[in-house]
Structure formats: C-alpha cells, structure tokens
C-alpha cells in the first residue's frame, strides 16, 4: 500500500476576513457620501421654496421669461431621488457582495448506491466512463473492478496485476481500461462487459417442474457470477518503483489517444507509445516520489504532482516539450487535474486546494482551506469541485472558491481516497471511494 506523509499544522488564511473588512469600509463610506449629498440637495430645495414664497413678485421681474420655478423644483427633486436611488443600488450591491461571502447555494446530496462486497482491501481510486453507465475501482487487493451504475453490480474483475492497483482510467471512446500498479507496471486491458444476465428458464415437462428449486439455485449462481480477466492487452514496464498513476493523453485533432503517461515513485514520469509499448520520453526533475499524473481532455498537456510539494505542467503541443514548475503548497501535492475552463486544480497534504489559471499561473486564483489532507480531486463540467479528505468527509466547492456543502453523514468510515463526476447521469452523478473498501454513488442537486 502507498504510505503518505501528513502535515498537522497549517497557518490559518485571513483572506476572507480582509475582504469583509474592506467591503464594510466601502459600505460605510457610501453611506457618508449619500448623507452629505442629500443634505446639500435638501438645503437647495428649501432655499428655493423660501425664495419663491416671500419674493414672488420681485423674482418674476428678475427671472427670464422662460424660467419656470416649478420645472426647476422638479429637477431638483428628481436629482435628489435619482441620487438616492443610485446610491441605494450601489449600497445594496455592496451589501449583497458581503452577504455572498457567507451565503452558499442550496444543494441536496443523496446517497443512492453502495458498491461494496467485492474488494478485500482499501480502494485507491474510482473512475467514471463517459460513454457507458459504468464506474471502475482500483484496490490495494491487486484487483480492479467495473460496476454497473444502474444495478450496482460488479460486472468484471481484472486480476492481471501482482501488486496494489493504484489508479484506473476508462478510455475516452473505446472499451479499454488503463491501470497502474505497485508491481511497477501499467496495463491496458479489455473493459467490455456483458450487461445481460442469465434469466431464461426451461419450461414444458412435468419432470422439469419437479426440479424448480434446483433451477433457481443454478440461475441465481449464474446471475451472481462475476466475469474475471487476468491477461492484459498491453503491459508497460520501465519504471523501477511503484507506478502510482496513469492517464490517456488526448490528441489535438480529437482522434483516439495513441499515448499514455505514467507516474512513479522512482521520481519520473514516462510518456509511452501505445502501439509499440515503448517509452517516447522520460520526464525528470521532481525531487521526490510522484503522487499523481493527469492529462488535459483535449490538448496535449500533462500535470504531474509530487511529494516535493510541487507540481509540473508539461506541454507536448510542440516538437520541443516545455515544462513549468509551480510551488504553491507546503507539503506533498497529492493530485493535480484540469477543469473544462482551462484551469488547474491542485490538492495537497497541507489541507488546501488551489485553483490556477492555465494562461497565467504565477499565483493561484483561489485557495480553499480544509481541516484535513486532500486526496484525488474531481471537477465537473459545470464547475463543481469534489474534495475527498483523510477525515472521511467530502467537500463540495465552486471553482470560485465558494463552499457549497460537506458530505460526512452516512459517508465513508475511513479516509476518502478519490472522487469522480459522471456527466449526464440521472441516477448518480458523483462517486467516491475510500479505504473502507467501498465506492458510494451520490446524487448531487444544486
């Protein structure tokens, strides 16, 4: 099993306190300006009313013939009303900004499925297929499983690894699976499953009817039998230590991936050619074991994270790959992923998640603080972040750093290791895995 180093003390972030203080100061200033302006306008209005009442005759001779006091009076009133309205709108805007600092969206989190009873050890990762109603699990018991979202049943077990299965990924368009393992290898294997169950029964003779009970037992065993696969289609062997993560690398022309990326405890990541099973390039530079790797969904971009408290962005869109190093955390970076909006999310054992703009990654846009170490993140297409924590909770945030919900009741009994979103599913749209040997399916409604 993969061991982890934890950081138990983190300096509290006062970013929200400073923001609230600044907004309150601006609000107070707006009130002062409003009072001052209203007093000045009221004095002008009173002075004009007084002059019109006491010196009407003389003022008529002095004023031009086209001057209309009532019109001017209305203009002043309109100005007074307009000024108050604009200031009121501005103040309401300031107040709404302050309230929004505390206000969260309404969200309903319902536990729908419990995918358990298959694994004999903790589950490191769960992954969702975007073309079928399927999820997969990677477990420390050397097994990877594929489950039906609709029925909750295990449809296929892969037992081709001789070590802990540390990650699992569905191919974006084919029935293929990619797994990484503690046996220092990554495998691609056939992930096609049989959705049909054996439900037909023989009927006709009275002799067969006498054996109904026997038939029931046989058919029940056939329905509960899980297909098992032990031979990979391709094996990638080149790392000298545990392969902790692997992912498919998309082609820029939207064609099927021809390359994969693997990350290892040997402090390197390797870019592989799928067809020839040979390394294209070894990515070096991290000072400690790698913890995760992730590829962009449509561009040839990869991020690798490490226990050296950094993550690296690798750009393979040109003939000469480029790399950038980011040092935003103070402890192991446990996972780094891309969002649909070309943002990068990094989670760490320092109990924080940072959101970076891909086009300008000098500093994070937002920092999310939690009260426990962060494991493998997930982000949905509509901008929801699922944060699995060591303290058995799952936190839901928006990409702007606003907290929406925390899932803890009826959740995992040991640390939550990963999450994944299933787009377009009406049954479950969020899945979580834990070291309690369970995968849970949640229905999240915002």
**Mean pLDDT, nearest integer?**
82
Shape: elongated
Number of helices: 5
How are the strands ordered across the major sheet? 2-3-4-5-9
Runs in which pLDDT lies below 50 for 5 or more consecutive residues are: 3-11, 56-67, 79-87, 95-103, 197-223
As a percent range, the share of helical residues equals 10-25%
Biggest beta-sheet profile: 5 strands, mixed
Distance between the termini: 36 Å
**Secondary-structure-derived class:** alpha+beta
Radius of gyration: 31 Å
Number of strands: 29
Strand fraction equals 35-45%
Tell me what the structure shows.
It is a single chain. With 446 residues, the protein is an alpha+beta fold. It contains five helices and 29 strands. A five-stranded mixed β-sheet has the order 2-3-4-5-9, with no helix packed on it. Strands 1-29-28-27 form a four-stranded antiparallel β-sheet, with no helix packed on it. Helix 1 (15-54) packs antiparallel against helix 3 (69-102). It starts with 14 loop residues before the first helix and ends with a strand.
Topology:
Layout: H1 15-54, H2 56-62, H3 69-102, E1 108-115, E2 123-128, E3 134-139, E4 144-148, E5 154-158, E6 165-170, E7 176-181, E8 185-190, H4 206-209, H5 212-224, E9 227-229, E10 234-237, E11 243-249, E12 259-264, E13 269-273, E14 278-283, E15 290-295, E16 301-306, E17 311-315, E18 322-326, E19 333-338, E20 343-348, E21 352-357, E22 366-369, E23 378-379, E24 384-388, E25 394-398, E26 403-407, E27 416-421, E28 430-434, E29 439-445
Parallel strand pairs: 5-9
Antiparallel strand pairs: 1-29, 2-3, 3-4, 4-5, 6-7, 7-8, 8-10, 11-12, 12-13, 13-14, 15-16, 16-17, 17-18, 19-20, 20-21, 21-22, 23-24, 24-25, 25-26, 27-28, 28-29
Helix pairs in contact: 1-3
